[in-house]
Here is the input.
Amino acid sequence: MIDSKLFAGAVLITVIIVSGALFSLSGGSPSMSIAAPAAAAGAALASAAEPVVPERVDPGGAVIANGDHLPLMIRWSNWRPEFGPSYVYAREADLDGMLSLDAPVEKMIMTASYEEVERLMRFADELKASGVTTVGLNTENGAGMTPGAEMQTLDSVDPEVNIVARVARLASDHGFKVVWGPVRAVTDQVSERTILAMMEAGLDGLAIQEQKFIETQSAGARLAAVERTRSRYLALAQRAGIEDFSFHVQIMQERCPDLQNCVEFVEGLEAIPVDSIAIWSNGPIPVDFVNAIRMQDTASDLIPNRQ
Here is the structure.
């Protein structure tokens, strides 16, 4: 196995840390430039260890790798051994720690613009050798997020114009899986022709942001909305010839004032099933919260009304 700490040092000569580098599927830090790798870095990469991928849960009822519950999708620095096999992600300015993480996880790079992905793809071989399998694209307004000109292309059916299709083509051509994480409303607003253009360009996963809605709506209402979106995208994936299109759903513990409602929501997601529970957090993710949404006995006191 490659010493990933040495690898990160050799490949990423310098990473300029940006203030406010906390990233999530619905927010993140400004993108950064990665310096060119050392000339000898390629020769040092003899072989790469196979990443540990959380087992996919199929509608047929395959056993989930992480005990009886869906894997999490979280920022790499929030991962804890108690969480088990997970998807972990980092932004460009925060890669060092994730690349050196030796844990049962699948590593993802979260991006927000074509320029950021283009920059990272210069180091595609090195990133894959360090265990990165997936490029995530979070299209969202805000500082350090998607440029306005790119946001305006989200419903374009032209794969040479649409930002998701452009990123999907670039990243998939370099051997990465591609997951799109739009604002929840955009997920349903984009046309079928647009979604097919994205999928035909290489998009093979979707992550939807439910935290705003599960805060104020019932678990039943949100599960119905998730199922409608999931069914639409899976049907389009079949038309595009994609058999393993992944589907992830994001929540926040800070936006679960009714914990039992969130627990019932996650319980329903496991029954659908989706591929992971993404958790965006403004700080460390409490183990008690993870235990609660996984309905562990140790969290029963946190959910007084749970039968």
Observations:
- The first helix runs from residue 4 to 11.
- Confidence is low (pLDDT under 50) at residues 1-53, 55-66.
- The CA atoms of residues 21 and 289 lie 23 Å apart.
- DSSP finds 13 helices and eight strands in the chain.
